[in-house]
Amino acid sequence: MRLATVELSGQPRTIVLDRAGRARDVTALTGLVRADVDIDNFATLTPAELEECPVVELEQITRWLPPVIEPARILCVGFNYRNHATEMDKELPANPTFFVRFPSSLVGHLEPIERCAASDTLDWEGEIAIVIGRGGRDISRDRAADHVWGYTAFADNSVREFQLHGTQATAGKNFDRSGSFGPWLVTADEVPDPRALKLHTYLGDQRVQSGVLADLVFDIPAVIEYVSTWTTLSPGDVIATGTPAGIGHRRVPPRYLQAGEVLTVDIPGITTLVNHVTDA
Q1: Would you give the DSSP letter of residue 214?
Q2: Interatomic CA distance for residues 57 and 19, integer angstroms
Q3: pLDDT value at position 88?
Q4: Residues 129 and 239: beta-carbon distance below 8 Å
Q5: Could you tell me the sign of the dihedral formed by the alpha carbons of 55, 59, 63, 68, in that order?
Q6: Is 195 in contact with 219 (CB distance < 8 Å)?
Q7: Nearest 5°: CA angle at 14, between 143 and 42?
Q8: pLDDT (tens digit, 9 = 90+) per residue, 145-200?
Q9: 233 contacts 139 by C-beta, under 8 angstroms
């Protein structure tokens, strides 16, 4: 299943692609994808019910919203690609390294991402994110796959100057509207081998990052096992799995996002997230 959260005539709606690839407004049957979403509303949605839902032409969408509206947790794994840790002159972590993002720091597909007035060091970080479907605590890695609802694209962009003000990355990761995710959440049943998922980040037509989930230091089961030891995961929680090498901050000279540029995070076969850059 492929689903998204969009705005139609000023109202948030949940749309799902039917077997013919047409978008259907399923909000009346499933509700919106919010924190603590009941994924059974989607799992039990029958083809017959879906065909009865109104068709939505993509041209009718006035705004793409993040797939999950204000998730309870947005957890991001740092230095989880070996080549990114190397480019940052970091040793591989012994345990997963986490920081958090706030919902206000993220916009949806085709929405502008903003360069703040305080710094011109907004940098790109394309990632693959998972959305939790079944919550839980102390989830073992052999059960972790049962808790993944789906996969989506994530732009974990960072204001490097503020990220480096201290030992914690929180400030640089949470400027309003500096990152994005979406547009489509693709459910786990359509991804038989998550480790084979590829990731490409483009600045305009130039590919600046590439990775594959098989290259993660801590794979998705390890990440879920670790994080669920210290917090109870809830349906709708988002976990961004890390960014590969190729960030602008480590280029010579450093290269940061500029107003008017277009940033694309592509997960082939899954979804493509596009945002243009603007000054706040």
Answers
A1: G
A2: 15
A3: 75
A4: yes
A5: positive
A6: yes
A7: 40
A8: 999 999 999 999 999 999 989 888 899 999 999 999 999 999 999 999 999 999 99
A9: yes
